[in-house]
Design a protein that fits this description.
mainly beta; SH3 type barrels; elongated; 12 strands; four-stranded antiparallel β-sheet; 135 residues; six-stranded mixed β-sheet
Length: 135
């Protein structure tokens, strides 16, 4: 594969696939997942694979970067900053490293995906993805 995206992840340089189709064509691919700014493949043994080959068994993906599949246009995110208690934005567009979101007055903001938390834990920074029934 000639094209890949380099991504530094906790001391390991990943070479991510540029799209889902190329990740699914990797040898022994059972599943593909979007991670950070590219795609990884999961082989039949359950190990993660990038363009360079199988990743070390002790490497596990960062959950906040792996679960980007739930971040979609139309979903709503809440600002966790205590100074902005009622700020809720609607995601309008997905970008390679982030999202474009709009508030109720029509102002547009660009937010990094890594600042959007999907695990439901309370925080004082970043944004929390609201459940679909609230969004």
């Amino acid at each position: 594969m000639a094209y890949s995206t380099r991504y530094e992840d906790r001391g390991l340089t990943l070479r991510l696939y540029p799209n889902e189709a190329s990740a699914s064509q990797s040898p022994d691919s059972a599943k593909t997942v979007e991670y950070a700014c590219g795609w990884l493949s999961i082989n039949r043994a359950g190990r993660y694979v990038d363009v360079g080959g199988v990743l070390p068994p002790e490497w596990q993906p960062e959950p906040s970067l792996l679960r980007v599949d739930v971040i979609q246009p139309g979903r709503r995110i809440k600002d966790n900053d205590p100074r902005m208690p009622a700020r809720v934005l609607t995601i309008t567009e997905l970008l390679p490293f982030g999202v474009r979101a709009q508030d109720i007055s029509g102002r547009t903001f660009t937010i990094l995906k890594r600042r959007i938390h999907t695990d439901g834990k309370p925080r004082k920074n970043g944004f929390t993805l609201l459940p679909k029934e609230l969004g």
